[in-house]
Automatic annotation (TrEMBL):
Residues 193-485 form the Glucose-6-phosphate dehydrogenase C-terminal domain. PANTHER family: GLUCOSE-6-PHOSPHATE 1-DEHYDROGENASE, GLUCOSE-6-PHOSPHATE 1-DEHYDROGENASE G6PD. The lineage of its organism: Bacteria, Bacillati, Bacillota, Bacilli, Bacillales. Keywords: Carbohydrate metabolism, Glucose metabolism, NADP, Oxidoreductase. The active site is at 242 (proton acceptor). The keyword NADP applies. Belongs to the glucose-6-phosphate dehydrogenase family. Residues 7-188 form the Glucose-6-phosphate dehydrogenase NAD-binding domain. Pfam families: G6PD_C, G6PD_N. One of its GO terms (molecular function) is glucose-6-phosphate dehydrogenase activity. This is Glucose-6-phosphate 1-dehydrogenase. InterPro entries: G6P_DH, G6P_DH_C, G6P_DH_NAD-bd, NAD(P)-bd_dom_sf.
Length: 507
């Protein structure tokens, strides 16, 4: 791995403390950082290097998945950190920053490769990129990279404008857009599972697959993000980015050992083939909800419009479900159902692939019907893969019985999304970052939904906190003869009837 100066804007912020320092620390323990790795943290407040290092040590101790119980290695890790006060809008601060970086590069005898991580509000992205360019920070002889995290714009127009401004300072190859769902280990495995298992690869078509369900349910409410969330809603906060990225990742067909470029082109093709929704289709394809007061895990929680800093009259969506179709030979006729929301019954992110039921017609009227085969990829709260098969139960007159083949990793040991993403960014591997084409096509696809929501053309259904969202979300699938898998009654049905064959890894 090449040497690099890691320049962190927002080094005193929450994301840096909870995610970035712990991720870097775990990479350090695994010797996945460059030999001469060093960080320059930036924020408005004045801090000495020592106070900053103590803050980094504190956040690693508190948030790292691996216990920071070796003082020697912890000291050696934080020694790589330096701090400099910088106000994003003050050009002279960038000149001072350049001098500091050049001095460190000389001291450490480093190639001037520079990675700029913008862990600050998106309203600052364009100004920082411009100042990096104008100050000469980005014109050293080494390479430069820019890491930014969503939101990439508020709609298609603002996303294009942001991209135009960024691309005046950085080329597309130099911009690494973080969508942390792409950093989740199970998401990163989806392609490899399909490519390396002919049994999956052969079935990955509309000939065998009945529908695909992508769910990202949260139990938390709006929390401290009222200002941002009430303008964004579930459609901008989750659907346009994370959910469409999951759709791309599950729908692509990749040859073995595909290059990042091939992955990018295949993902782009999925987005291009996504059947656009026209104004008149939206109400029948998209369900919009907002949580009302309810109970989650025995605790009463307020409705969305009673949350602090949310207007009583807010018509913001905290839930969205949609039916999407891909007009491509592999996927024609297979609905992709996507849903995501806040204050739902349980936290879970999963993809369920429901296979067609060739045996359905063979079962006699009296006989219990077999369940469809399901392949379930769990991303959180635990990572796992489950395959639901049918067998006959000799103890019950040979009735059909579902069994589950289960693989669950010991999630304690899995790298966090930010570790995977930072490691790839340090290596310059773009596969699990959002390319501008994907971002633009996602906004383009979502734009009519934003307009329909804005014009109140889609009813806003209230749902009690602690449920699986509005009943209309179930009706969306029921119209096609399907239901969401693993919501209460369905999952208990499986658990009661099913028998589990579990494989647990110990790694
Ligand atoms: P935060 O806690 O409010 O931190 C903001 C950081 O930006 C602080 O270090 C602050 O430094 C710095 N800053 C603000 N204005 C500045 C200015 N004018 N000049 C220089 N520095 C300035 O925010 P955060 O939660 O870390 O979030 C950062 C970004 O990541 C946001 O875009 C957020 O949407 C995104 N994000 C956050 C999370 C998360 O878990 N927190 C998750 C996903 C995405 P001073 O206080 O020293 O001025």
């Amino acid at each position: 791995m090449e040497t690099v100066t890691f320049v962190l804007f927002g080094a005193t912020g929450d994301l840096a403390k909870r995610k970035i320092y712990p991720a870097l620390y775990n990479l350090f323990l695994e010797q996945k950082l460059p030999k001469c790795f060093h960080v320059i943290g930036l924020g408005r407040r004045e801090l000495s290097d020592e106070v900053f290092q103590a803050g980094v040590e504190q956040s690693v101790t508190q948030f790292s998945r691996r216990k920071a119980n070796d003082p020697v290695s912890l000291k050696s890790f934080v020694h790589a950190f330096r701090y400099q006060a910088l106000d994003i809008g003050r050009k002279e601060d960038y000149t001072k920053l350049l001098q500091r970086i050049e001095q460190r590069e000389r001291e450490l005898n480093l190639t001037p490769n520079r990675m700029f991580y913008l862990s600050v509000g998106p309203e600052f992205f364009a100004a920082i990129a411009t100042n990096i360019k104008e100050s000469g920070l980005g014109s050293a002889a080494g390479w430069k990279r820019l890491l930014i995290e969503k939101p990439f714009g508020h709609d298609l127009q603002s996303a294009r404008e942001l991209n135009r401004q960024l691309s005046e300072a950085f080329s597309e190859q130099e911009i690494f857009r973080i969508d942390h769902y792409l950093g989740k280990p199970m998401v990163q495995k989806l392609g490899a599972l399909q490519q390396n298992n002919p049994v999956l690869d052969a079935l990955w078509t509309n000939r065998y697959i009945a529908n695909v369900q992508i769910t990202a349910n949260e139990t938390v409410g709006v929390e401290e993000r009222a200002g941002y969330y009430d303008r964004a809603g579930a459609v901008r906060d989750m659907f346009q980015n994370h959910m469409l990225q999951l759709l791309m990742m599950v729908a692509i067909h990749l040859p073995k050992n595909s290059t990042p470029e091939e992955v990018r082109l295949k993902k782009k093709k999925v987005m291009e083939d996504l059947v656009p929704l026209h104004k008149q289709d939206i109400a029948s394809h998209v369900i919009r909800g907002q949580y009302a007061a309810g109970t989650i895990q025995g605790k009463s929680v307020p409705g969305y419009t009673s949350e602090p800093n949310i207007s009583e009259a807010s018509l913001n969506d905290t839930f969205i479900a949609a039916k999407l179709q891909i007009d491509a030979p592999f996927w024609r006729g297979v609905p992709f159902y996507i849903r995501t929301g806040k204050r739902l019954k349980e936290k879970s992110t999963r993809i369920v692939v429901e296979f067609k039921e060739p045996l359905k017609q063979q079962a006699s009227a009296q006989e219990e019907k077999p369940m469809p085969n399901l392949l379930v990829f769990e991303m959180s709260p635990h990572e796992g893969i489950t395959l639901q098969l049918n067998t006959r139960d000799p103890q019950h007159q040979g009735a059909f019985k579902p069994i589950h083949i289960d693989f669950h990793s010991n999630h304690q040991d899995l790298p966090e999304a930010y570790e995977n993403l930072l490691y790839d960014a340090l290596l310059g591997k773009p596969t699990f970052f959002a390319h501008w084409d994907e971002v633009e096509l996602s906004w383009q696809w979502v734009e009519p939904i934003l307009q329909a929501f804005g014009d109140q053309l889609v009813p806003l259904h209230p749902y009690p906190a602690g449920t699986y969202g509005p009943a209309e979300s179930d009706a969306l699938l029921a119209k096609d003869g399907y239901h969401w898998w693993f919501d209460s009654e369905c999952s208990s049905e499986i658990q009661l009837k099913g028998e589990q064959y579990a494989y647990h890894s110990n790694h």
